[in-house]
C-alpha cells in the first residue's frame, strides 16, 4: 500500500490527525496517478474501520427543483454507512444543482450512530476542479454550515481551479507524483509478487514512459505482461490507443497545413471525442506532440548567421546606416496638440489621450481601481 | 466564303439584331494589308485574326469597330475546321490563337489591354485610380446616338468610326479646350451636324492606310468625353482631369505614325497595363467560376436602350463581367427584352463573358459549335452589349435629320431594322392606350378575343375575373386535372354502382379511393381546378372551407341540418342514399369540396377524423384540398385519398397567361417583365394577378423595372432556411450585404447557422484573399475565423448557462458573421466525392454519439465500481484502463489455440470485474478509431459466439445483488433507476441487510432496456 511508501510523512500526519483529533475538511490535490484516492481510502478505513470498505454503488436519478422547472440529474454514488463518494462534475453545467440540493441533503442528514462514536459522516467529492464556479460557491456555504457533523474530502488534480474560498476552508494536502525511482521500486515489487522475471532496465523504461503516474506505470506493466511474456529487454511498451491516435493527428498537423488537412484533423478530433477522450487531455497531449514536432527543423540547411536588419539576411551598410540613423520612436506631436486653436481643456484632453493616460476602464484597472467590467467580451475571456 | 489570296471574307445573314445591320465577316490571314483594305472597302464588318500579327489586327479592329464588334474566340484557326455556315453564323468574330488562351503568363485581359493601348494610344491608359478612360467609350456612343443616329441607322458598325471622326472635327472646333491637340491630317472644318455626316461618308471610304488619321480619331476620344460631358452633364469632372494626362500621351504618340503605332503604344501602355491591378494580380480566366467583383464596377454608365432592343435573343452569362455584377447584367438584358438562361443550349445567341474564356461554358459553347451563338469578349460586353442596347435607342433629335440626310451608299443594307425600331417606338409613343399597340408589342397574345374585355374595368378583382373558365385554361398541371376529371367521371360507376351490386369488388379495388386530396402551394389553382372539373362534369359543387366550422358532427344527427355545418356535411354525404332510389338523372349530382383541410384547427375538433368517417360512408365524391400534404394533421387522411400534388406552373406558362390578362386589361407589359413577375411570386398565379392589378392602377405600361421595384420588398419577407442563410452569408457577394441583413441571416436560426458555418467555413476559398499562391492568406483567414468561432462559443455558453440573452447579437456576430465575412467566396470540395453543397453540421451527430458512448461508459464504470476491484473515475477508466482491458478481453481469444480455454479465461476476467456483455461491446466500441483496425479483427465469429454462450451460462450461477438505497430526505420520488449490481458469490449474498435479490438475468435484461433508452439522446451542449 502506498500508505507507507509514497508519502510517509503525509500519511503519518493524517493518521495522527484522524486518530487523535477531529478531522477538518480535506483537499487532496496532485497529478493523476499519484495516489490521492488510495490515500483517501486508507484514511476512511482509518476513520471508520472495515465498514468503510463495504460500499455499494448506486446510480440514480435525482429530481431537483430549479426555479420554475425540475431537472433530472443522474448521479452515481459509492456509499458506505459512513461515507458517500460522488463525482459532482459529471452533471456538467448542472453541477450546481448537485451541490445545492443533493450534497446539501446528504450533508444535512446526520448519521445515526448508536454508539455515538464518530459523530460525523464523510462526503468524498472527486474532481472538484471541474466544478463550475457557481457550484463551488454553493459548496462553500455547505461546508461551513454542516461542518459539525459532515466532513468533506475533496479530491482534484489542480488546486488552482478550486476557488480560494474553498481552499481556505480545507486542509490542503498536496500529493506528489512518485518519482521514477519510486515507480521502479513499486514495479519491481509487483513483479516479485507476481513472480515475473523483469529484465534489467525494463521497469525503468516503463516508469519513464508513464510520465510519473504510478497507475499508468502499473497498467502498462500489465499490458506488457499480457502482450508478451517472458519480457525481453527490447520489448516495446505499447502506448495507449488514443495516444497513438493523437500522435497521428499531431504529425498530420505538422506535415501539412491546408484547409483539406484541417478538415481531416477535425474529423479525427471528432473521432477522439466520440470515443470519450476528454478534450483537455487531447489538447494537452496534442500540444506536447506539436511542440516536439515543431522543434524538428523543417529545412535541411546549414545554420548560419543572418543580418536581421535586412530582409535578405546579408549584411549591407545601408540597412545598418538606417538602423543607426533613423531614430525608432516617433516624435511627440506636441505641435498638433498645443498649437491648434482649440480650447485649453480640449488640448489637454487630447494630450492625455496621446499619452494614453485617459481614465478608461483598463487604465483605471491598472491603477488598482476595483470596478465592474462592462465589456462583455473581456469579461467572458476572463472566464 | 471566298478566298482571296491570304484573306477570306465571309458574309453572313440574316443579322439577328433588329437594330444592327447584317454583318459580313472578314478574315485577314497573315496580315495582308491589302486584303484588309479590300475588305474594308467592301464593307466587311469583322475580323478574324491569327497568331501572326494579331496585335496589329486587333488594333485595327479595336480602333475601328470595337464598339460594335463581337469577338469570337477559337482555339486554333484553321478554316477548314472552322466550318462556318454562313446562314447560321451570325457574327463577326476575332479568333485568338490558342497560345494566348493557354498561356498562363498572359492574362487575356492584359493582352487585350495592351493591344488596345497600342491602338488607341492612351485612351485605354488606366491607372487604377482613374476610372475615366473606360468611361469614354459608352459616352462616346451615347453621343453618337444623339447626334448621329441617322447615319448610324444605315450602318451600325461604322457609326462609331464616323462618330470618332466627327468628334475629332468637333474637338478642333473647341480649340480652347484642347490646345495641345494638333492634328495636321485633319483639315476638316467643324461643321454642324449635317456636314459631319458628309465627312463621315468620306471618311468611311477613306482608307486604313491613313493610319494617322485613324490614330487621331482615336486620340480624340477624350474630347468626345468632354463634349458629351458638357452636352449631357455626365461625369464632367473626372473627364476633365483625365484629359490633361491623355493629351500628353497623345502628343507623345502622334508623331509615331503608321509603322510606329505598335511601338508607340507599347511604350505608353506597358506600365498601365501592369498597373491596372487586374492584369497581373489575377488568375484571370484560368479559374472559372470564381466570381470576383467586376473590376470596373460602376465605372461605366449603363446605357439605356429601346425597350425591346434585345427581344428574342437569349443570353448566357459566364464569369465575371467587366463592369457589371452578374445580376445587373441579367437585369439589363431582361430590361431590354432579352432572355437570360443558365446554361448554353442551341437557342443561345450570346455568351456574355469576360474573364472566363476557357471556362466550362465557353467549352460547352465550343462543343456546340460556333454557329449557334457568339462569344462576346471583354470589349464586347463593354461595347458589345452596351452598344447593342445603346444603339437600339432611337435618339430624340434625329428624326428631323433623317429626312434631310441623303442615304448612305456604303452601308445601305442595314437601313431597315433601325427604322423598324423607330417605327415601333413611334407606335409606342402614340398608341399607349390603344390595343393596336398591344398587338404590336406583345408576343403570344390573343388580343382580338380579349379586346372587348378592356371596356369592362369593373370592381371584380383580377384573380376572380380571370379565373379559368374551362379546365384547359388552367395553367400547368394539365395531367393532374385530367386525372381529377377521370376520377370524378368514373366515381359513380366505381363506387355507387359496384356498391349496389357487389360490395366485395369495391373493397378489393385498392387503387380506387373515394376521395382525392389536392395539394400544392397557394394560388396555383387547386380550388379552381376542382370547381371547374366538377362543373364540367355537371356536378354540383358544395364547397366547405376554413370559414365554415368543421368540427365533429353532432352525434345526434336528428337535430338536423339546421344545426352545425358538420351535420349538414354528414347529411349531404349520406343522403345520396335517398337519391339512389330516385331517378338519378333528375337528381343533380353533387360533389363535396373540402377546402383547406390542413387548416382544420382548434375550432374544428375531430374534423379530420370526422372527414375520414364521412369519406368512408360517403355516397358522393369528396375533393379535399390542402397546402401541405405532409402536414402532421393530414397523416391519417392521406390513406383514404387519391393524392394529386399540384406543381407550380413554370414562369413561361404563367407569363403567357398573364400576358393574356394584361392584354385584356389594356396593359402594356412585355413578356420578360411578366416572367420576372412570375418568378418573383413563386408560382402563385393569384398573387401575380393581384400585383398586376395593383400596378395597373398607377400605370398603363409596365416595364421590367417596375416589377422589380414592386416586388423587391416582398421577396424580403420570405422565411429562409439555415442552409440558405449560410449560403448567402458565404456567397460570393456576401461582402455587399448590409450588417442588419447579416444579422437577420444569422439570426434566422441562431442554433443551426453557427453550426453550419463552423462545419463549412473550411471549404471556402475566400475572395478577400485575392491571389493566394500557397494558401497562406487563406489559412490565416481560417485561423481568424476559427478564433472568432471560438469566441462565439464562449459567448454562447454565457447565453445558455447564465441566460445572458442580451449577448445574442454578439454571439451571432462572433460565431457566424465574422467567419463568414472573412471567408466568403467560392466553395470547394475538400474530399473526393463530396458534393459541393454546405454540409449539415457534423457536430450534432458526433455529439450525440459521444453522449451515448459516455453513458455506456458510465454503465460500465458503475459495473466496475460494483465489482469493488477499482474505484477510479470514469475518465481515468477510459483514458488509462481501457487499453489494458481490451487487451485482456480480446487477447486470449485471438492468441490461445483452444477456444474453450480462451473463452473460459475471458469470462473469468469479466466476472472478476463484473463486466457484462454490453460492457464488453462498449469497450470494443470505444476503442474503435477510424483508420485503425477494428479491435475485434482476427477473432473468429465462432469464438465470439462461444464467448457469448459461455457468459450466458455463467450468469446463471452468478448472484447479483441489487442494493437498496438509503432513502434520503429531500428526494421526493423514489429513484427510477437502479443499476446497482454487486457481484458476489452467492453464499454470502445476504451479508448486507436490506438487500433485494434479483436474478442476474433480470438484471441483464433491465440493463439492456436502460441502454436502449439511453441511446441517441441528444443534448444541447
Automatic annotation (TrEMBL), chain A:
Amino-acid biosynthesis listed as a keyword: no
Pfam family, one: zf-RVT
GO terms classed as biological process: DNA repair; DNA-templated DNA replication
Residue intervals of the AAA+ ATPase domain: 22-181
Keyword Cell inner membrane: no
Cellular component terms (Gene Ontology): DNA replication factor C complex; nucleus
Gene Ontology molecular function: any one: DNA clamp loader activity
Domain of life of the organism encoding this protein: Eukaryota
UniProt keyword terms in alphabetical order: DNA replication
Protein's name according to its UniProt entry: AAA+ ATPase domain-containing protein
UniProtKB/TrEMBL annotation, chain B:
Ranges of biased composition (kind: Polar residues): 210-220
Keywords: ATP-binding, DNA replication, Nucleotide-binding, Nucleus
A GO cellular component annotation in the UniProt record: DNA replication factor C complex
Biased composition (Gly residues): 274-286
Predominant cellular place of this UniProt entry's protein: nucleus
Places the protein is found: Nucleus
Superkingdom of the source species: Eukaryota
Gene3D superfamilies: 1.10.8.60, 1.20.272.10, BRCT domain (3.40.50.10190), P-loop containing nucleotide triphosphate hydrolases (3.40.50.300)
Sequence ranges of Basic and acidic residues compositional bias: 115-127, 159-188, 289-303, 398-408, 419-428
Recorded GO MF terms: ATP binding; ATP hydrolysis activity; DNA binding; DNA clamp loader activity
Region described as Disordered: spans on this chain: 115-305, 393-429, 985-1011
GO BP field: DNA repair; DNA replication
Biased composition (Acidic residues): 241-251, 999-1009
Residues spanning the membrane: none
Pfam families: AAA (PF00004), AAA_lid_RFC1 (PF25361), BRCT (PF00533), RFC1 (PF08519)
Boundaries of every BRCT domain copy: 305-376
Subunit and partners: Heterotetramer of subunits RFC2, RFC3, RFC4 and RFC5 that can form a complex with RFC1.
Family from the record: Belongs to the activator 1 large subunit family.
Protein name: Replication factor C subunit 1
Organism: Fagus sylvatica (Beechnut)
Amino acid at each position: 500500500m502506498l500508505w507507507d511508501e509514497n508519502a510517509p510523512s503525509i500519511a503519518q500526519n493524517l493518521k495522527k490527525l484522524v486518530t487523535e483529533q477531529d478531522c477538518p475538511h480535506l483537499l487532496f490535490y496532485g497529478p493523476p496517478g499519484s495516489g490521492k484516492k488510495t490515500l483517501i481510502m486508507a484514511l476512511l478505513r482509518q476513520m471508520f474501520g472495515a465498514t468503510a470498505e463495504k460500499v455499494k454503488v448506486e446510480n440514480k436519478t435525482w429530481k431537483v427543483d430549479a426555479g420554475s422547472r425540475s431537472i433530472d440529474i443522474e448521479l452515481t454514488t459509492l456509499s458506505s454507512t459512513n461515507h458517500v463518494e460522488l463525482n459532482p462534475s459529471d452533471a456538467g453545467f448542472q453541477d450546481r444543482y448537485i451541490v445545492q440540493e443533493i450534497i446539501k441533503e446528504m450533508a444535512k442528514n446526520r448519521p445515526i450512530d448508536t454508539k455515538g462514536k464518530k459523530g460525523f459522516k464523510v462526503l468524498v467529492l472527486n474532481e472538484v476542479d471541474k466544478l463550475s464556479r457557481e457550484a463551488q460557491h454553493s459548496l462553500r456555504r455547505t461546508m461551513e454550515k454542516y461542518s459539525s457533523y459532515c466532513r468533506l474530502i475533496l479530491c482534484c488534480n489542480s488546486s488552482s481551479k478550486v476557488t480560494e474560498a474553498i481552499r481556505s476552508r480545507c486542509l490542503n494536502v498536496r500529493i506528489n507524483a512518485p518519482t521514477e525511482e519510486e515507480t521502479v521500486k513499486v514495479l519491481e515489487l509487483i513483479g516479485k509478487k507476481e513472480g515475473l522475471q523483469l529484465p534489467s532496465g525494463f521497469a525503468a523504461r516503463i516508469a519513464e514512459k508513464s510520465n510519473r503516474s504510478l497507475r499508468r506505470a502499473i497498467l502498462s506493466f500489465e499490458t506488457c505482461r499480457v502482450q508478451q511474456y517472458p519480457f525481453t529487454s527490447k520489448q516495446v511498451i505499447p502506448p495507449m490507443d488514443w495516444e497513438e491516435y493523437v500522435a497521428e493527428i499531431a504529425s498530420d498537423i505538422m506535415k501539412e497545413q491546408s484547409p483539406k488537412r484541417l478538415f481531416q484533423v477535425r474529423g479525427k478530433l471528432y473521432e477522439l471525442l466520440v470515443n470519450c477522450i476528454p478534450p483537455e487531455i487531447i489538447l494537452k497531449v496534442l500540444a506536447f506532440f506539436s511542440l516536439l514536432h515543431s522543434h524538428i527543423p523543417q529545412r535541411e540547411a546549414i545554420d548560419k548567421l543572418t543580418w536581421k536588419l535586412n530582409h535578405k539576411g546579408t549584411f549591407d551598410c545601408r540597412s545598418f546606416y538606417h538602423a543607426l540613423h533613423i531614430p525608432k520612436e516617433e516624435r511627440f506631436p506636441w505641435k498638433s496638440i498645443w498649437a491648434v486653436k482649440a480650447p485649453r481643456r480640449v488640448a489637454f484632453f487630447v494630450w492625455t489621450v496621446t499619452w494614453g493616460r485617459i481614465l478608461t476602464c483598463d487604465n483605471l484597472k491598472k491603477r488598482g481601481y476595483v470596478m465592474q467590467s462592462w465589456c462583455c467580451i473581456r469579461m467572458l475571456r476572463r472566464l | 466564303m471566298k478566298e482571296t489570296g491570304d484573306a477570306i471574307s465571309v458574309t453572313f445573314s440574316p443579322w439577328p439584331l433588329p437594330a444592327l445591320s447584317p454583318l459580313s465577316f472578314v478574315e485577314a490571314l497573315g496580315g495582308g494589308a491589302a486584303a484588309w483594305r479590300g475588305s474594308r472597302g467592301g464593307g466587311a464588318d469583322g475580323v478574324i485574326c491569327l497568331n501572326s500579327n494579331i496585335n496589329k489586327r486587333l488594333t485595327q479592329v479595336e480602333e475601328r469597330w470595337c464598339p460594335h464588334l463581337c469577338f469570337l474566340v477559337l482555339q486554333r484557326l484553321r478554316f477548314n475546321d472552322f466550318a462556318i455556315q454562313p446562314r447560321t453564323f451570325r457574327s463577326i468574330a476575332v479568333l485568338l490563337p490558342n497560345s494566348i488562351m493557354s498561356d498562363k503568363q498572359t492574362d487575356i485581359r492584359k493582352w487585350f489591354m495592351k493591344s488596345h493601348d497600342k491602338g488607341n494610344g492612351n485612351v485605354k491608359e488606366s491607372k487604377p485610380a482613374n476610372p475615366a478612360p473606360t468611361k469614354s467609350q459608352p459616352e462616346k456612343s451615347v453621343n453618337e446616338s444623339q447626334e448621329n443616329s441617322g447615319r448610324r441607322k444605315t450602318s451600325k458598325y461604322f457609326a462609331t468610326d464616323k462618330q470618332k471622326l466627327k468628334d475629332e472635327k468637333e474637338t478642333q472646333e473647341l480649340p480652347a479646350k484642347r490646345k495641345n491637340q494638333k492634328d495636321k491630317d485633319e483639315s476638316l472644318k467643324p461643321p454642324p451636324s449635317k456636314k459631319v455626316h458628309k465627312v463621315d461618308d468620306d471618311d468611311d471610304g477613306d482608307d486604313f492606310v491613313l493610319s494617322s488619321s485613324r490614330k487621331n480619331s482615336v486620340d480624340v476620344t477624350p474630347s468626345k468625353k468632354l463634349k458629351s460631358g458638357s452636352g449631357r452633364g455626365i461625369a464632367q469632372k473626372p473627364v476633365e482631369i483625365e484629359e490633361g494626362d491623355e493629351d500628353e500621351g497623345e502628343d507623345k504618340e502622334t508623331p509615331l505614325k503608321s509603322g510606329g503605332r505598335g511601338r508607340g503604344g507599347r511604350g505608353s501602355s506597358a506600365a498601365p497595363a501592369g498597373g491596372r491591378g487586374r492584369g497581373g494580380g489575377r488568375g484571370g480566366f484560368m479559374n472559372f467560376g470564381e466570381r470576383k467583383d467586376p473590376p470596373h464596377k460602376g465605372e461605366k454608365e449603363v446605357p439605356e436602350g429601346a425597350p425591346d432592343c434585345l427581344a428574342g435573343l437569349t443570353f448566357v452569362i459566364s464569369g465575371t463581367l467587366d463592369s457589371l455584377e452578374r445580376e445587373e447584367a441579367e437585369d439589363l438584358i431582361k430590361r431590354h427584352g432579352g432572355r437570360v438562361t443558365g446554361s448554353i443550349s442551341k437557342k443561345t445567341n450570346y455568351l456574355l463573358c469576360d474573364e472566363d474564356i476557357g471556362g466550362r461554358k465557353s467549352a460547352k459553347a465550343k462543343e456546340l459549335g460556333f454557329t449557334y451563338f457568339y462569344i462576346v469578349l471583354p470589349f464586347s460586353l463593354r461595347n458589345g452589349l452596351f452598344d447593342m442596347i445603346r444603339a437600339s435607342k432611337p435618339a430624340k433629335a434625329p428624326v428631323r435629320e433623317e429626312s434631310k440626310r441623303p442615304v448612305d451608299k456604303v452601308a445601305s443594307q442595314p437601313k431597315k431594322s433601325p427604322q423598324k425600331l423607330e417605327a415601333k417606338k413611334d407606335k409606342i409613343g402614340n398608341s399607349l392606350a390603344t390595343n393596336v399597340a398591344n398587338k404590336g408589342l406583345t408576343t403570344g397574345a390573343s388580343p382580338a378575343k380579349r379586346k372587348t374585355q378592356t371596356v369592362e374595368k369593373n370592381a371584380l378583382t383580377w384573380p376572380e375575373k380571370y379565373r379559368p373558365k374551362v379546365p384547359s385554361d388552367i395553367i400547368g398541371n394539365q395531367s393532374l386535372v385530367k386525372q381529377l376529371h377521370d376520377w370524378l367521371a368514373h366515381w359513380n360507376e366505381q363506387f355507387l354502382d359496384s356498391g349496389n351490386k357487389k360490395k366485395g369488388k369495391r373493397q378489393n379495388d385498392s387503387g380506387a379511393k373515394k376521395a382525392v386530396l389536392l395539394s400544392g402551394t397557394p394560388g396555383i389553382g387547386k380550388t379552381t381546378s376542382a370547381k371547374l372539373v366538377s362543373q364540367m362534369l355537371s356536378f354540383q359543387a358544395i364547397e366547405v372551407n376554413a370559414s365554415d366550422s368543421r368540427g365533429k358532427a353532432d352525434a345526434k344527427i336528428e337535430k338536423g341540418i339546421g344545426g352545425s355545418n358538420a351535420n349538414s356535411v354528414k347529411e349531404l354525404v349520406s343522403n345520396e342514399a335517398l337519391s339512389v332510389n330516385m331517378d338519378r338523372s333528375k337528381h343533380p349530382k353533387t360533389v363535396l369540396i373540402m377546402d383547406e383541410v390542413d387548416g382544420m384547427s382548434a375550432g374544428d375538433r375531430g374534423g379530420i377524423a370526422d372527414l375520414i368517417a364521412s369519406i368512408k360512408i360517403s355516397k358522393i365524391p369528396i375533393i379535399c384540398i390542402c397546402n401541405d400534404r405532409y402536414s402532421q394533421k393530414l397523416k391519417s387522411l392521406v390513406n383514404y385519398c387519391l393524392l394529386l400534388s399540384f406543381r407550380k406552373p413554370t414562369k413561361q406558362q404563367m407569363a403567357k397567361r398573364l400576358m393574356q390578362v394584361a392584354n385584356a386589361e389594356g396593359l402594356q407589359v412585355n413578356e420578360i417583365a411578366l416572367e420576372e413577375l412570375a418568378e418573383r411570386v413563386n408560382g402563385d398565379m393569384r398573387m401575380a394577378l393581384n400585383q398586376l392589378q395593383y400596378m395597373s392602377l398607377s400605370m398603363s405600361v409596365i416595364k421590367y423595372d417596375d416589377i422589380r421595384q414592386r416586388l423587391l420588398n416582398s421577396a424580403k419577407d420570405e422565411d429562409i432556411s439555415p442552409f440558405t442563410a449560410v449560403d448567402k452569408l458565404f456567397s460570393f457577394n456576401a461582402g455587399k450585404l448590409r450588417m442588419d441583413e447579416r444579422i437577420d441571416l444569422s439570426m434566422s436560426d441562431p442554433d443551426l447557422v453557427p453550426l453550419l458555418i463552423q462545419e463549412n467555413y473550411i471549404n471556402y476559398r475566400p475572395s478577400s484573399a485575392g491571389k493566394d499562391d500557397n494558401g497562406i492568406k487563406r489559412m490565416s483567414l481560417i485561423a481568424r475565423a476559427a478564433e472568432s468561432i471560438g469566441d462565439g462559443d464562449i459567448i454562447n455558453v454565457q447565453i445558455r448557462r447564465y441566460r445572458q440573452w442580451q449577448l445574442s447579437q454578439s454571439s451571432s456576430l462572433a460565431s457566424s458573421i465574422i467567419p463568414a465575412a472573412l471567408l466568403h467566396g467560392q466553395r470547394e470540395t475538400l474530399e473526393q466525392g463530396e458534393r459541393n453543397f454546405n454540409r449539415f453540421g457534423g457536430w450534432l451527430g458526433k455529439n450525440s454519439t459521444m453522449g451515448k458512448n459516455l453513458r455506456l461508459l458510465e454503465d460500465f464504470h458503475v459495473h466496475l465500481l460494483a465489482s469493488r476491484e477499482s474505484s477510479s473515475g470514469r475518465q481515468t477508466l477510459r483514458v488509462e484502463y481501457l487499453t489494458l482491458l481490451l487487451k485482456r478481453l480480446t487477447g486470449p481469444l485471438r492468441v490461445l489455440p483452444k477456444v474453450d480455454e480462451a473463452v473460459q479465461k475471458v469470462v473469468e476476467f469479466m466476472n472478476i470485474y463484473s463486466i457484462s456483455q454490453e460492457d464488453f461491446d462498449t469497450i470494443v466500441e470505444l476503442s474503435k478509431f477510424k483508420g485503425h483496425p477494428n479491435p475485434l479483427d482476427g477473432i473468429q465469429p465462432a469464438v465470439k459466439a462461444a464467448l457469448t454462450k459461455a457468459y450466458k451460462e455463467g450468469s446463471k450461477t452468478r448472484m447479483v445483488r441489487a442494493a437498496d438505497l438509503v432513502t434520503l430526505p429531500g428526494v421526493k420520488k423514489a429513484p427510477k433507476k437502479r443499476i446497482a449490481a454487486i457481484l458476489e458469490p452467492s453464499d454470502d449474498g445476504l451479508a448486507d441487510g436490506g438487500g433485494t435479490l434479483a436474478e442476474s438475468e433480470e438484471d441483464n435484461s433491465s440493463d439492456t432496456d436502460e441502454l436502449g433508452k439511453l441511446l441517441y439522446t441528444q443534448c444541447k451542449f
